[in-house]
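Lab meeting, item 3. Inverse folding demo.
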């Protein structure tokens, strides 16, 4: 895949990409050369569970509407309207989550959905919808950047539509053990999947300069240098392993006024994006979606 520049309003992004590659060379040697804009999907190292977790269970006598709903996408109706699923069409739900988009697509008779999610708990939570879909829903534990390979493994060469809802979900934020939120104390993890370095690894090993760049570019935190200095100073005293510990460190150097966002919001966002390679994944997924869409097919991204 040819590298493409994504406008970001700063010349520091390339430096962060180089730093990311250097950091991953320590924690993930097999992925050390994966930059944000130059990754060839065909050469991507297989990650644990890739295509391995395909769930397609025996259907029961239920309709998709009967399955329990754990989370409703904020722009679900608008995204599905833009997707305009048609009878007999084949669609990819690149961020299955709680199945909101898949459930809406399956309401159209004869549609088939390939649901993808790198979060194993989301895939496991989709079993009921698989059961109620009458064989029209297949769930795959993988990254949405691999959607072309996922479809190929299911014998699908082109699709009528792709929908993706990027970022973190409320379900993930509400699970303290996932480490996404400063509202709930838990391990400083932030991984959407089960592979790669955690946020705790990043704050423990990244240099002060790299931390400042990550927090500034991916979190748009104007106090990024002060936050990075505080993290480096704190980790000399004790490992930073919990969300509360990190939030407290950030709160000591970033002040917020009443009714403003929590002082740690931007730092947590930056680390989450970095840990999960979210911009890299989105770029690769958009390219893959364009390749997979039939003429007249639709792509809806929230």
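The presenter then showed the designed sequence:
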């Amino acid at each position: 895949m040819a590298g493409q520049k994504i406008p970001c309003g700063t010349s520091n992004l390339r430096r962060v990409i180089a730093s990311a590659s250097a950091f991953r060379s320590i924690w993930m040697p097999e992925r050390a050369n994966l930059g944000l804009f130059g990754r060839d999907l065909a050469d991507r190292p297989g990650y644990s569970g890739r295509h391995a977790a395909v769930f397609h269970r025996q259907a029961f006598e239920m309709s998709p509407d009967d399955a329990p709903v754990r989370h409703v996408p904020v722009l679900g109706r608008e995204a599905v309207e833009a997707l305009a699923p048609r009878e007999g069409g084949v669609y990819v739900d690149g961020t299955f989550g709680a199945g909101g988009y898949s459930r809406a697509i399956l309401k159209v008779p004869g549609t088939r959905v390939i649901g993808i999610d790198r979060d194993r708990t989301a895939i496991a939570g989709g079993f009921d919808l698989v059961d109620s879909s009458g064989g029209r829903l297949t769930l795959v534990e993988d990254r949405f950047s691999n959607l072309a390979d996922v479809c190929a493994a299911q014998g699908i060469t082109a699709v009528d539509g792709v929908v993706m809802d990027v970022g973190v979900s409320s379900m993930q934020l509400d699970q303290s053990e996932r480490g996404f939120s400063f509202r709930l104390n838990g391990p400083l993890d932030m991984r959407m999947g089960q592979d790669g370095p955690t946020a705790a690894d990043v704050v423990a090993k990244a240099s002060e300069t790299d931390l400042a760049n990550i927090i500034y570019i991916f979190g748009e935190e104007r106090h990024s240098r002060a936050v990075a200095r505080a993290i480096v100073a704190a980790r000399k005293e004790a490992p930073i392993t919990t969300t509360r510990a990190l939030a407290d460190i950030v709160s000591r150097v970033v002040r917020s006024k009443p009714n403003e966002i929590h002082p740690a919001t931007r730092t947590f966002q930056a680390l989450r994006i970095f840990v999960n390679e979210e911009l890299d994944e989105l770029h690769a997924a958009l390219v893959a979606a364009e390749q997979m869409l039939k003429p007249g097919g639709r792509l809806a991204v929230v």
